[in-house]
Amino acid sequence: MVLGFPCNQFMGQEPGTIEEILEYCSTTWGVSFPILDTIEDGGEGAHPLYRALTQTPDAGGEAGPVA
């Protein structure tokens, strides 16, 4: 399953309210997977889910920031 977590920390690519983001993604790209509220993925304000995902080793045994 794909889950979308908008984050405006990547050169301001996802500004706006969650309602605006949902409208844009559905009408522009036809997104049908769940999109949750905007999160932070870095720094002290990083969302707990993002922290957990970057600390859990992948199939190759590596963990770290998503590139």
Automatic annotation (TrEMBL):
Superkingdom of the organism of origin: Bacteria
Keyword Aminoacyl-tRNA synthetase recorded: no
One Pfam family here: GSHPx
Keywords: Oxidoreductase, Peroxidase
UniProt-listed InterPro entries: Glutathione_peroxidase, GPX_CS, Thioredoxin-like_sf
PANTHER family: GLUTATHIONE PEROXIDASE, THIOREDOXIN_GLUTATHIONE PEROXIDASE BTUE
Family listed: Belongs to the glutathione peroxidase family.
Protein name: Glutathione peroxidase
Organism this protein belongs to: Brachybacterium hainanense
